[in-house]
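Below is a filled-in request sheet from our internal design queue. Each sheet records the structural input a requester submitted and the sequence that came back. We keep these sheets so that new team members can see what a complete request looks like end to end.

REQUESTER: design group, bay 2
PRIORITY: normal
MODE: inverse folding
CHAIN LENGTH: 276
BACKBONE (tokenized):
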């Protein structure tokens, strides 16, 4: 009898436990079709626009490529790196981004009278030429920044050799963008024509201690591998002035690498220098 009674009690207890509801956390089921249909919202305002993007492809502008430096861009466009930095209001000229668009020609300025003016170098206009020059034509304030034509007399430069040594390597547009001229360490390096110093430094790979002179709106000259540099940026120099001493910085031997750039494009200096 005891055993039967115990079985009855056990059955009542188990029945009570079984009658309690089991609460499970709700589960949200979403089909693959529903998930795919959910739109993805992109915040277009968060997409970074590089400086100058609106000028990409326009005349007088350049889009930065991998490996570019401001010095190289200036040399390739016949401008000084500091000038390009100023035209583009660059806070740090050593930091430019791939895809950034830079102005590489002087900006056109429009005076209150509507006369369009462009900056010119001191060597491109003489007092006599300035006195006899015609009055500039009036242009609308929306004048475009197209590439300026060479000023009168820009091609009329009386060049001299920057040093007297033998030519070691001639001009090659691909392999050697100038002349390599031999000499001894410490030998004078001379300015090939009047001009303004637009770069002094060693920031361009393969050139060592480099000097770049801007002669007018058309021509630059470059003097590389110097041992000592004797001038400063923004300084005016005269033809034949000693600007450096020959050396072998970033070179396999003592030599001067000399380039002439016409509107940024390397040209054969031998075609401009007087015959020896």
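RETURNED SEQUENCE:
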């Amino acid at each position: 009898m005891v055993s039967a009674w115990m079985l009855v009690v056990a059955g009542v207890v188990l029945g009570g436990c079984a009658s309690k509801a089991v609460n499970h956390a709700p589960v949200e089921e979403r089909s693959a079709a529903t998930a795919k249909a959910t739109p993805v919202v992109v915040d277009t305002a968060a997409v970074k626009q590089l400086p100058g993007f609106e000028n990409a492809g326009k005349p007088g502008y350049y889009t930065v490529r991998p490996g570019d430096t401001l010095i190289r861009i200036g040399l390739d466009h016949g401008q000084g790196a500091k000038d390009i930095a100023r035209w583009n209001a660059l806070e740090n000229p050593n930091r430019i981004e791939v895809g950034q668009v830079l102005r590489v020609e002087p900006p056109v300025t429009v005076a209150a009278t509507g006369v369009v003016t462009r900056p010119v170098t001191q060597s491109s206009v003489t007092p006599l030429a300035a006195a006899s020059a015609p009055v500039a034509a009036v242009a609308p304030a929306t004048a475009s920044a197209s590439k300026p034509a060479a000023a009168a007399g820009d091609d009329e430069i009386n060049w001299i050799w920057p040093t007297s040594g033998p030519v070691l390597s001639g001009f090659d547009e691909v392999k050697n963008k100038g002349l390599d001229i031999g000499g001894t360490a410490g030998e004078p390096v001379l300015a090939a024509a009047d001009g303004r110093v637009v770069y002094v430094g060693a920031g361009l790979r393969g050139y060592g201690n480099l000097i770049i002179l801007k002669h007018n709106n058309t021509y630059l000259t470059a003097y590389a591998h110097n041992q000592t540099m004797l001038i400063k940026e923004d300084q005016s120099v005269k033809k034949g002035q000693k600007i450096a001493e020959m050396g072998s910085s970033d070179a396999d031997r003592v030599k001067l690498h000399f380039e002439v750039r016409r509107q940024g494009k390397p040209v054969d200096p031998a075609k401009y220098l007087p015959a020896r």
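SHEET NOTES:
- Residues 92 and 127 are 37 Å apart (CA to CA).
- Residues 7-35, 110-152 have pLDDT under 50 and may be disordered.
FILED BY: M.R.
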